[in-house]
């Protein structure tokens, strides 16, 4: 069972209202919001996206940087869905809801346990996506893999594999997945997260100086 949050605790709706609104499936939207509220550790709301400062743009650094990074990834995931999953071959903006919703849902949860799951000793940054996947399985589906819906299957694998080639355990890299559609979706999510993590501002500043 999830713990009851303190009345003044940060909430997903407070920080991710717009991004949650991009999820078209109302039930899924509520599940994602509820999972974040029930299980996000305190550090999730205040941690910088990169503690070392060697990665991520300036906006994702400092207090609350991980939240700002999460919002950037959600926007990138939404745009990836628009670019790669049109509802029809001639769609300009309409997106297949399944991919829109799973990509954005994964974005909002992918770094929840970036410093490890506080409820599981020994969990660390190196497999933080897998720790989120495991917690979703326990909390939402009581550890029953046969109860996992297809939407949540995609979300869980997107989250678990989002570090791509830098994922420590090879079975949880997108390239290791045998289902071609799932693999492509996970690759698309990895691209969204990776792109949102680039140091765009520093690169642009360097270009301006060079010119």
Please outline the helices and strands.
Elements: H1 12-21, H2 26-39, H3 65-84, H4 97-109, H5 128-141, H6 150-160, H7 180-196, H8 200-210
Helix pairs in contact: 1-2, 2-4, 3-4, 3-7, 4-6, 4-7, 5-6, 6-7
Task: Explain briefly what this protein structure is.
The protein is mainly α. 52% of the residues lie in helices and 0% in strands. It is built from eight helices and no strands.
Q: What does this protein look like?
A:
- The protein has 211 residues and is mainly alpha-helical.
- Helix content is 52%, strand content 0%.
- It is built from 8 helices and no strands.
- It has helices at residues 12-21, 26-39, 65-84, 97-109, 128-141, 150-160, 180-196, 200-210.
- The longest helix has 20 residues, at 65-84.
- The model has no long low-confidence stretch (mean pLDDT 90).
List keywords for this structure.
0% strand, 52% helix, 211 residues, globular, mainly alpha
Strand content: under 5%
Main beta-sheet strand count, sense and barrel state? none
**First-last Cα distance:** 57 Å
User: What is the number of E strands?
Assistant: 0
Which shape, going by the Cα principal axes? globular
Low-confidence stretches: none
The H-and-E topology, N to C, reads as HHHHHHHH
Radius of gyration: 17 Å
Mean pLDDT: 90
Number of helical regions: 8
Helix-residue proportion: 40-55%
Which structural class fits the helix and strand makeup?
Answer: mainly alpha
